[in-house]
Amino acid sequence: MTVVSLETNKLANYINGEWVDIRNAALVLNPATRETIVEVPLSDASSVDHAVSAAKKAQKDWALVPAPQRAEVLYQVGYLMKERKERLSQLLTMENGKVLEEARGEVQEGIDMAFYMAGEGRRLFGQTTPAELNDKFAMSQRSPVGVVGIITPWNFPIAIATWKSFPAIVSGNAVIWKPATETPIMAHELAKIFEEAGLPKGLLNVVFGAGSTVGDAMVQHQDIRVISFTGSDVTGRTIASECGKQLKKVSLEMGGKNAVIVMDDADLDLAVEGILWSAFGTSGQRCTACSRVIVHEKVKETLEERLLAAMEKLTIGNGLDESNKVGPIINKAGMDKIKEYMEIGREEGAKLLAGGYVLNEGEHGKGNYFAPTLFSDATSDMRIAQEEIFGPVVSLISVPNFEEAIEVNNGVTFGLSSSIFTSDVNRVFKAQRDLDTGIVYVNAGTTGAEIHLPFGGTKGTGNGHRDSGVQALDVFTEWKAIYVDYSGKLQRAQIDVD
Ligand code: UN1
């Protein structure tokens, strides 16, 4: 395999179609080796102002471009992403750590989103409805909001950016994008792709920054009318309250405490595979990752045995080496958080069956590696079974029946994804009705949402909006009701005439 490299060692903001250098910068480290890969600019509010004024100007013209023509740019973006899939995937592995096959999967999500949203250029369906009066036509149509802000996380740095920017662009908006500081390369590459695809300048602006400086400036800016955010619970809630004060539309996706339920009639080997993939894939650093297993007490021991045997075979290491199945943790803060939960789990009385430690021998010592971890005999009220850990850690809770399994699943503040392994068709239908999450899987793990379906969750996962799917358009458009009276006289609605 030829390993790709970046042409630059310092990235720049992309504003109004130009690459703008910023004096202050931070180092971006490869989590597999802790080597510096690139420098990322640390911008302040002035860059946001600069981007917004360019975006405002560009958006006025863009809104008048017919949507099928706007979509042409997204088709080009899709073709370029496809052409560069391997490059993007390798760079993604270098900055994020996820193993190469997962990186390719993520880039593919972005490519799929490009073609799917390009198709929206010929749909963007509104509605026609009957009017109350004769000779009157009534319809509802989507209009762009104007300038929108997107704030994206490091765990899916390209896919989530496409879930947000593509619907925004095709529906006629201009975008200000603040990518995660840990993973700026995907933003740089996507901006280059947009530029080459012919997106008019000012419509996609990338402003890098650390901490909350850039995000705050975006939230406070009067001319940014929507904020779409994926990230931590604490940051999301702060953004929501600030946006609330300004009556700014905000879409939030903030994580999960997702469970796989294994019933006594389940295919246990299949369940083990599902748990393994959704708990330890991406080292558990997905909003959709399985971090609880709710198992019927009759099959608890067998499941534990098989899961432990399967976990032993997981190969952990640098994601560029294709024999590895589990990559590193993003950074030191991520490692510290996981370590803290090891203490919490022990103190709470859960039984540590596997893992629980940092891998620091040999090659592992150079990066941020944590051993896949299984706690058993957990109870639903424990913090390890309630709080998002964002690492390769699973807590196993046993239950006596189906009803309790559902109750335990729903007994957390998050509501993103859930899964059930069962061969009973009645349980399948009851579960899909009663599991209180935005995504439900049957006989599959909790990860792997497809881009043409709505992505998001109930309760503390977000605020009711959805990323991806046609539903994403609702975040980036306003509904406009239009009445055309062709009677030739003034007809008054809602007036009693008899
Ligand atoms: C995330 O973890 O934030 O469903 C996104 C999945 C992926 C996307 C995850 N398609 O697991």
Quick summary:
The chain is α/β, with parallel strands linked by helices and 498 residues long. 36% of the residues lie in helices and 21% in strands. It is globular and about 80 Å long.
Q: How would you characterize this protein structure?
A:
- By secondary structure, the protein is an alpha/beta fold.
- The protein has two domains: 13-254 and 462-481, Aldehyde Dehydrogenase, Chain A, domain 1 (3-Layer(aba) Sandwich), CATH 3.40.605.10; 258-442, Aldehyde Dehydrogenase, Chain A, domain 2 (3-Layer(aba) Sandwich).
- The chain has 14 helices and 23 strands.
- The strands form seven sheets. The chain has a seven-stranded mixed beta sheet with strand order 14-17-18-13-12-20-21, sandwiched between helices.
- The radius of gyration is 24 Å and the shape is globular.
- It binds 2-aminohexanedioic acid (UN1).
- Residues 109, 155-156, 286-288, 447-449 line the site of 2-aminohexanedioic acid.
- 2-aminohexanedioic acid (UN1) binds at residues 109, 155-156, 286-288, 447-449.
- It is an enzyme of class 1 (oxidoreductase).
